[in-house]
Write a structure and sequence with these properties.
Elements (H helix, E strand, L loop, with lengths): L12 E4 L5 E3 L7 E5 L5 H13 L5 E7 L4 H12 L4 E4 L12 E2 L5 H4 L9 H12 L11 H20 L6 H9 L1 H13 L6 H13 L1 H14 L19 H6 L3 E5 L9 H16 L4 E7 L7 H5 L9 E7 L2 H8 L1 H10 L2 E6 L3 H11 L1 E11 L6 E11 L3 H5 L5 E6 L3 E6 L6 E2 L21 E2 L9
Parallel strand pairs: 3-9, 3-10, 4-7, 4-8, 5-6, 5-7, 8-9, 15-16
Antiparallel strand pairs: 1-2, 10-13, 11-12, 13-14
Protein name: Type IV secretory system conjugative DNA transfer family protein
Main location: membrane
GO cellular component, one term: plasma membrane
């Protein structure tokens, strides 16, 4: 049977009802939070299908945190080229190969370095975001704040000094090289302190005073700053961004699809690097560069507090994000209970692909509510041998925690604001035509899912009709 055509009008396909009717998000640009344990289908049922759903929206930029060895980029690159979408990967470790044609190079500090002349007022705020992505501020640890503020001040001096004198070197690697030479750093502080016109004169004076009167803490702060920048002291990341050929703003303005390719063996260490790029994309968009959707797979592995806290203003700037993680407990551990509550409050769509955490299952079961059920009992009396038949009305959960934990692999639970809970089927990348025929094999999963179209969605060239 031929799959039916569905004009999704730029909305994400969320799944299918148990009767195979498609389920779309109510309106374009709704942020979502997706919980899925290992093997739940985060790539197959969310990341890839989001790209396929929004491919026809040529003015919409898609930024994908491709954390598992470029598995998404491998599958969608030729498809994007086939349908005329601009596609690029940020791949400093050459995961996709040394001569990969879609590789682009950007400065990770682009949120500050690439500001226009009319955006100078935004510079201090952009630098602040850089500092907090390098040295994250954990929840409930106020007593050690001094030991984080000191290294941030060192980094702030470095970023602003490099930006003032040599913007090309204002990269993570350039900052690391600048701070790692004690003589260069001391000389720069003295020069900036003696220049009454220097925008970093006050910081330089403070650091010189600390070096003179509290040398022990000064040395500790410098070493802590260098520890935060250790990733950029050697190898490919040392020179990354110095030959940048495009900016984050240009990518958003021109509606690019961009994958941030992460070597899986370094996934837990490269969070700050990719956080810099994501913050630069977000900074460009919030200054009016265009529309974008952020697919944040494993967002708890990177210091993305800014993207968590700014969700309250996303819709005003035509931004939305898909926050993908293993469980709610991961989000609480990384960002705190209050921030997790804010995130859930502002995500109109909540999606559970697979449960592996008992607390999550109990929480969702309770939220889904209860239903009436009839209990029938048989009994006998002590005086007669007759059986007594009785019925009673009681209440039971719509879905018990046990049922959620044992949910079939093809099913999921959705909660959509204004609609409620839905128990439905997942949508897989091989069920969306015609793009399912253009996807390349997944290098990590060992092949390509056999196309099994359930619905036809629009494409940029209109070839689906």
């Amino acid at each position: 049977m031929t799959a039916p055509f569905l004009d999704n009008e730029g909305r994400r396909l969320l799944g299918f009802t148990l009767d195979n009717a498609p389920i779309l998000e109510p309106s374009p640009g709704m942020s979502s939070i997706i919980y899925a344990a290992a093997g739940g289908g985060k790539t197959t049922c969310v990341s890839s299908t989001t790209i396929q759903s929004l491919l026809a929206s040529t003015t919409l930029s898609l930024v994908i945190n491709d954390v598992k060895q470029g598995e998404i980029a491998h599958q969608i690159a030729e498809m994007c080229a086939r349908y005329g979408r601009k596609f690029g990967v940020i791949d400093p470790f050459h995961v996709m190969g040394a001569d990969y044609p879609f590789r682009i190079e950007l400065n990770a500090f682009g949120s500050a370095v690439d500001l226009g002349e009319d955006e100078t007022d935004d510079f201090p705020f952009a630098v602040e975001k850089i500092l907090f992505s390098l040295i994250d501020e954990p929840a409930d640890d106020a007593k050690n704040k001094y030991w984080r503020d000191g290294p941030r001040e060192i980094c702030e001096f470095g970023v602003k000094t490099l930006h003032r004198h040599s913007p090309r070197l204002c990269t993570p690697g350039g900052l690391c090289a600048f701070l790692s030479n004690p003589r260069t750093l001391a000389s720069a502080m003295e020069l900036e302190a003696d220049d009454p016109e220097s925008p970093v004169r006050d910081i330089a004076l403070q650091l010189l005073d600390m070096r003179e009167h509290n040398a022990e803490h000064y040395v500790q702060h410098v070493r802590a700053a260098l520890t935060a920048l250790k990733l950029f002291s050697f190898g490919k990341l040392r020179d990354d961004g110095m030959r940048a050929d495009i900016t984050h703003r240009e990518l958003v303005e021109d509606g690019w699809i961009v994958c941030l390719v992460n070597p899986i063996r370094y996934a837990d260490r490269l969070g700050p690097y990719f956080a810099q790029h994501l913050l630069s994309f977000m900074g460009a968009q919030l200054s009016g560069a265009g529309r974008a959707v952020y697919v944040l797979d494993e967002f708890c592995n990177a210091p993305l507090r800014e993207l968590v806290e700014r969700i309250t203003v996303f819709r005003a700037f035509d931004a939305s994000a898909l926050y993908i993680t293993q469980s709610r407990q991961d989000v609480v551990r990384k960002y705190g209970e209050k921030e997790t509550a804010v995130l859930e409050d502002n995500c109109a769509i909540k999606q559970w692909l697979k449960f592996s955490n008992f607390e999550d299952a109990e929480r969702v079961s309770k939220a889904m509510g209860e239903t009436l059920h009839v209990a029938r009992t048989l009994g006998t009396g002590s005086e007669r041998l007759d059986l007594n038949d009785s019925m009673a009305v009681g209440r039971e959960p719509l879905m018990s925690p046990h049922e959620l934990m044992a949910m079939p692999a093809e099913n999921q639970v959705l909660h959509v604001a204004g609609v409620g809970f839905l128990y439905c089927k997942k949508v897989r990348q091989n069920q969306i035509a015609p793009t399912c025929f253009k996807l390349a094999p997944n290098p990590l999963e060992g092949g390509r899912l056999e196309p099994d179209p359930k619905v036809v969605l629009p494409t940029p060239d209109g070839s689906e009709r």
